[in-house]
Design goal:
3 helices, elongated, Threonyl-tRNA Synthetase, Chain A, domain 2, about 250 residues, Elongation Factor Tu (Ef-tu), domain 3, 15 strands
């Protein structure tokens, strides 16, 4: 097994959904094939964002990618069913399912914009766990909240969300250190993954430590709607959907 880290093309390109790459390892497990490439445009599940699906192919073979994961060594595994023959050293083309990627990217970015909105209104709320899946999207906070004021608070957050997602922004990427993250980000979690480079994504001047995929401008997300506002296991959970999902 090749344990060299896979080069993650999506880390420095907002829009990459295709690439050419070299096969560096192939395993066959339970009727499926696990292919490792030298570099990839496929996003592996992590950080509350779902994995990409798509196709990896050569002139004589095609892998329908059904799952993508990244191991502790930073090696990305593309798992699916192979038709034809692939060998280590073969060159292949990679094509991400754009519809799935676009939805996951918008949901992921929406979670950060929700936090951006919250930071403008309630800067003392401490962000925690988040999930950005089509069937479950939320951000949790450590916050002292009176639920009797729920409607008033939600209306304020919704108004700020609407303002932010109407903006055209020049989102940027910055590879950095944890020390620098502490200076430029509102909140840095205690644990940062060691199997990816340390990166901040800046929505204008709002920086987030994140290894996921992002929109290049906030107005590409569409409207983000707050759907639930509740206390769960001692944390404030704000759930949301894209207007295109409703």
């Amino acid at each position: 097994m090749n344990s060299q880290k896979t080069s993650l093309l999506y880390m420095d390109d907002f829009d990459v959904t295709s690439c050419d790459s070299e096969v560096v390892n192939i395993d066959r497990v339970d009727g499926q094939v696990d292919i490792v490439l030298a570099e990839t445009c496929f996003y592996p599940k992590g950080g509350g964002q779902d994995y990409d699906k798509g196709v990896i192919s050569s002139d004589i073979a095609k892998l329908e990618v059904e799952k993508v994961s990244i191991d502790d060594n930073g090696v990305v595994h593309h798992i699916g069913r192979l038709v034809g023959d692939l060998q280590v050293g073969d060159m292949v083309g990679c094509e991400v399912d754009i519809i799935r990627r676009t939805l996951n990217t918008k949901l992921h970015s929406a979670g950060h914009v929700l936090d951006m909105a919250v930071s403008h209104i309630y800067p003392d709320w401490v962000p925690g766990r988040g999930a950005h899946y089509p069937d479950m999207s939320f951000v949790e906070y450590g916050a002292d909240v009176n639920l009797d004021d729920r409607d008033k608070i939600v209306n304020k957050i919704q108004a700020e969300l609407d303002k932010l997602t109407s903006r055209s922004t020049a989102n940027t990427i910055k590879f950095t250190t944890r020390e620098e993250l502490e200076k430029i980000c509102r909140h840095v979690p205690d644990y940062l993954p060691t199997n990816k480079p340390i990166r901040a994504v800046l929505y204008d001047d709002f920086a987030v430590p994140c290894g996921g995929t992002h929109v290049s401008s906030l107005d590409k997300i569409g409207r983000v709607l707050v759907t639930k506002f509740k206390i769960k296991d001692g944390k404030l959970r704000i759930s949301y959907k894209l207007s295109s999902q409703i």
